[in-house]
């Protein structure tokens, strides 16, 4: 239906620059960069994770929800610099930060406030600008097409239902859910026979479904064989919760197979409208444990893998009536990797009453698309080229 | 034909269609009065609002109401179940088609309460009527008004901080009528929004909103759209201006072309044969947008029946799930499995955020993960574990299991590799488990995912 397809966004630059992706593939495959996106669904309260303790307004506006300043004593936050400190339950990330391998981007988010979780996630995963100004495919799908290559599994979506919106439009494979495996061996053999013999089908719709099914089966096989291989991933390092288990599995896969270039991981539970302090204690501990174990277990793959942690928006600066916070605007994102420019990036807009967006939210000073573009251009070496967006040139990686 | 227009059918329906003649059966279906409804109990928006509370709504003590998520789940399930069980399967396909054309997103504001009403009163009665009636019904429905923000669009200067909202006007031109290359400009979008100022909603009982034209909020100026001045006559100033505009848009040649193309791509081939599109567009114009007439023309054209196009469209997840259950003559005992399958395949009914609705782009659906989910659903359904019961002996009789599967389930389209796989699974015997597994293989085949 090409004549009908809405908003033909794919820029000409796309076709012209795919060669960049091809060059990357042509290089030593073991050095091909991999990106793992951890999407914190529910809107992470950045003010409790990367706390601006140096901003006086933080303690005035936040009162009992604020993290204690860094220093001695139980519960003290972990100093990043003179302005920001990490949640006390994230010592692993703090260690990696001190090694210069974490780049935080503060006050980042959508270019205009949109306070619906689902719509904001949908928009971000497509690399869109505003409600309904959405490119046709996910931003990782766009990158996947630019990377190309013929690895059995190039992209993975793990931890959610189906394929993450960012990967819709690729051959991405949903994995990591036990109920998604096909456990009847006779059925499985019949599928292989049917799809294995389907490659000779004349072009057309049945060929499309045949090839897609064959790729799905091959990918599932491939992942199962990776999981069965001996490796040095230490299971005990990972928290025994869904995110920990997912990241353990992904560590194994990306470590053993450099053909896997893009992974999207869903991590839920961040919508802290009630009892935020207590809930964040568990959430930050789980996230820190999973991220740290992941990075520490990558072995030689560590130099080529980058983790991007992001969320759809931040939360109100002031608390609500149920010891929680409501939907706000800016949040924080961070990158973990050997080549990132460690430190705090982005302009801090301030939390004084006159500095807040609509008198309630942290203002966005770095468009989230700048972060995506930096990862795509500087780590994956692909053009990305989000429609209607010109990156500011934010540098998050060492050249 | 049955697969594309009616989500397939069980052996009884297939036999009935063969006896009546496929074309006559279809023409009869296209002449049926509207029937069926989304929610079996016909609950009104107000009743739904009283039963299901929105997130953040204050719950009174002893409040026995259900959560908002329960309503979204129920709507999602009903969309699959009504398509499966409808006595008017062609109507059900058309309602789904027009919902995607006039998409609304049930998670936005109060739309979940209004979705069933929108489907049953703005879409269903009009899918075989004049397009302008359908267009006007959607334009005035509070679900659409809320979804595309015309509910709040008022003339500039009415009150501080409020004014024109172009969202609906833009999508009206781009998606509902002319199409993105339909020859309009940003100035036309703006003027369209001005014509439609005051097409708002007012609070109804129980927090649900209803359409009302608010004359005070309407822009009284003169607007020019596609070279036509509105109001076209002085006495038309006000709500009638918008009606005239919508009627003119409905009958515009670009709209005729767009609707003809979309219907041909949905029911015949994508991209559609140009000869078919121009014939349908001509019929559309000659019959002043009569959608029943256009569809009758479509099923009377040789392109529709050409073997060349058979099996060349990829089923969407909804097409797949509905046709699998209808093919086996399944009865839905527990709709959870249907909803979950659609969710895993990224096509939850009524939950598509952008106004394009779910697109039929095969690249979106024919991917490894999507096909794996289809295979698992096929296995669950055949094993009787999908919350659906059916009569195995009727679908895969032990006397001739292979023939029944290739003829009834695969409609003669099975590839050699599919037949070989079916033979393998059936082996020499015809025990219950073998037949169920073979049915799963047929439903999981590359051919069953196309029509």
Describe, in plain words, how this protein is organized in 3D.
The complex is a heterodimer of chains A (399) and B (451). By secondary structure, chain A is an alpha/beta fold. In chain A, 35% of the residues lie in helices and 13% in strands. Chain A is built from eleven helices and twelve strands. The longest helix of chain A is centred in the middle third of the chain and has 24 residues, at 205-228. Chain B is built from 24 helices and eight strands. In chain B, strand 5 (223-225) and strand 6 form a beta hairpin. Chain B is globular, with a radius of gyration of 24 Å. The chains are: A alpha/beta (399), B mainly alpha (451). Chains A and B meet through helix 5, helix 7 and helix 8 of A and helix 10, helix 13, helix 18, helix 19 and helix 20 of B.
Write the layout of secondary structure elements.
The complex is a heterodimer of chains A (399) and B (451).
Chain A: H1 12-26, E1 34-40, H2 46-49, E2 50-51, H3 56-62, E3 78-79, E4 85-86, H4 91-98, E5 102-109, H5 117-126, H6 139-147, E6 155-158, E7 173-175, H7 185-196, H8 205-228, H9 242-256, E8 262-267, H10 276-296, E9 305-311, E10 331-336, E11 343-345, E12 366-367, H11 368-380
Parallel strand pairs in A: 1-8, 1-9, 5-11, 5-12, 6-7, 6-8
Antiparallel strand pairs in A: 2-4, 3-4, 5-10, 9-10
Helix pairs in contact in A: 4-10, 7-8, 9-10
Chain B: H1 2-6, H2 11-20, H3 22-29, H4 45-51, E1 52-53, E2 66-67, H5 68-85, H6 89-101, H7 111-123, H8 131-140, H9 142-147, H10 167-176, H11 186-195, E3 199-203, E4 209-213, E5 223-225, E6 228-230, H12 239-250, H13 253-267, H14 274-286, H15 291-300, H16 302-305, H17 317-327, E7 331-332, H18 336-344, H19 362-365, H20 368-382, E8 388-389, H21 392-395, H22 401-409, H23 416-426, H24 432-443
Parallel strand pairs in B: 1-2
Antiparallel strand pairs in B: 3-4, 5-6, 7-8
């Amino acid at each position: 239906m090409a004549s009908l397809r809405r908003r033909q966004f794919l820029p000409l630059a796309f076709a012209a620059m795919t060669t960049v992706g091809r060059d990357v593939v042509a290089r030593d495959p073991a050095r091909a960069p991999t990106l793992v996106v951890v999407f914190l669904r529910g809107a992470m309260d950045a003010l409790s994770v990367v706390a601006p303790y140096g901003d006086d307004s933080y303690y005035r506006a936040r009162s009992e929800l604020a993290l204690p300043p860094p220093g001695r004593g139980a519960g003290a936050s972990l100093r990043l610099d003179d302005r920001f400190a990490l949640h006390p339950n994230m010592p692993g990330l703090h260690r990696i930060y001190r090694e210069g391998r974490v780049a935080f981007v503060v006050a980042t988010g959508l270019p205009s406030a949109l306070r619906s979780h689902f719509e904001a996630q949908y928009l971000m995963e497509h690399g869109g600008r505003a409600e309904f100004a959405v490119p046709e495919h996910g931003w990782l799908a766009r990158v996947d097409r630019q990377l190309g290559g013929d690895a059995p599994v190039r992209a993975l979506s793990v931890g959610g239902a189906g394929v993450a919106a960012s990967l819709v439009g690729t051959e991405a494979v949903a994995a990591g859910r036990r109920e998604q495996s096909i456990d009847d061996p006779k059925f499985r053999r019949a599928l292989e026979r049917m799809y294995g013999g389907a490659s000779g089908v004349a072009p057309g719709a049945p060929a499309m479904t045949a090839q897609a099914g064959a790729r799905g089966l091959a990918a599932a096989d491939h992942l199962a064989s990776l999981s069965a291989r001996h490796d040095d991933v230490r299971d005990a390092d990972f928290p025994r919760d869904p995110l920990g288990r997912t990241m353990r599995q992904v560590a194994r896969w990306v470590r053993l197979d450099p053909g896997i270039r893009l992974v999207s991981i869903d991590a839920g539970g961040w919508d802290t409208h009630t009892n935020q302090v207590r809930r964040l204690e568990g959430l930050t501990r789980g996230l820190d444990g999973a991220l740290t174990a992941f990075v520490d277990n990558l072995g030689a793959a560590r130099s080529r893998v980058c983790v991007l942690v992001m969320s759809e928006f931040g939360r109100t600066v002031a608390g609500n009536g149920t010891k929680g916070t409501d939907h706000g605007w800016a949040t924080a994102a961070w990158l973990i990797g050997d080549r990132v420019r460690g430190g705090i990036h982005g302009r801090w807009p301030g939390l004084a009453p006159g500095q807040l967006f609509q008198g309630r939210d942290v203002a966005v000073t770095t468009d989230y698309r700048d972060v995506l573009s930096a990862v795509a251009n500087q780590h994956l070496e692909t053009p990305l080229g989000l429609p209607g967006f010109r990156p500011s040139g934010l540098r998050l990686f060492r050249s | 034909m049955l697969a594309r227009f009616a989500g397939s059918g069980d052996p009884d329906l297939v036999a009935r269609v063969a006896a009546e003649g496929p074309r006559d059966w279809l023409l009869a279906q296209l002449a049926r009065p509207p029937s069926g409804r989304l929610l079996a109990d016909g609950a009104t928006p107000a009743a739904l609002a009283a039963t299901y509370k929105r997130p953040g709504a204050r719950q009174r003590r002893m409040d026995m109401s259900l959560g908002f998520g329960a309503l979204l789940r129920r709507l999602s399930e009903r969309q699959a179940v009504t398509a499966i069980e409808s006595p008017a399967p062609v109507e059900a396909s058309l309602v789904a088609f027009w919902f995607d054309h006039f998409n609304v997103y049930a998670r936005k504001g109060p739309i979940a309460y209004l979705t069933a009403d929108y489907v049953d009163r703005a879409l269903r009665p009009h899918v075989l009527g004049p397009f302008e009636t359908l267009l006007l019904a959607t334009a005035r429905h509070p679900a659409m008004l809320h979804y595309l923000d015309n509910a709040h669009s008022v003339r500039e200067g009415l009150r501080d901080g409020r004014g024109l909202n172009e969202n609906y006007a833009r999508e009206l031109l781009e998606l509902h009528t002319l199409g993105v290359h339909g020859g309009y400009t940003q100035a036309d979008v703006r003027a369209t929004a001005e014509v439609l100022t005051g097409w708002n909603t007012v609070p109804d009982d129980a927090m649900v909103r209803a359409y009302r034209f608010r004359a005070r909020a309407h822009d009284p100026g003169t607007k020019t759209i596609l070279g036509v001045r509105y109001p076209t006559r002085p006495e038309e100033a006000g709500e009638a201006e918008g009606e005239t505009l919508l009627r003119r848009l409905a009958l515009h040649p670009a709209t005729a072309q767009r609707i003809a193309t979309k219907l041909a791509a949905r029911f015949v081939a994508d991209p559609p044969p140009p000869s078919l599109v121009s014939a349908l567009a001509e019929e559309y114009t000659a019959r002043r947008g009569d959608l029943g007439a256009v569809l009758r023309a479509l099923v009377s054209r040789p392109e529709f029946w050409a073997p060349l196009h058979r099996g060349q469209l990829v089923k969407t997840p909804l097409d797949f799930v509905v046709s699998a259950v209808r093919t086996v003559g399944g009865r839905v005992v527990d709709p959870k499995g249907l909803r979950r399958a659609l969710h895993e395949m990224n096509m939850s009914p009524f939950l598509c955020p952008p106004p394009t609705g779910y697109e039929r782009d095969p690249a979106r659906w024919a991917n490894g993960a999507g096909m794996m989910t289809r295979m698992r659903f096929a296995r669950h359904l055949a094993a009787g574990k999908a919350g659906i019961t059916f009569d195995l002996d009727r679908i895969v009789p032990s006397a001739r299991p292979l023939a029944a599967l290739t003829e009834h389930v695969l409609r003669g389209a099975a590839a050699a590799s599919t037949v070989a796989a079916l033979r393998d699974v059936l082996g020499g015997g015809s025990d219950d488990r073998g037949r169920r597994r073979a049915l799963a293989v047929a439903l999981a085949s590359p051919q069953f995912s196309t029509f």
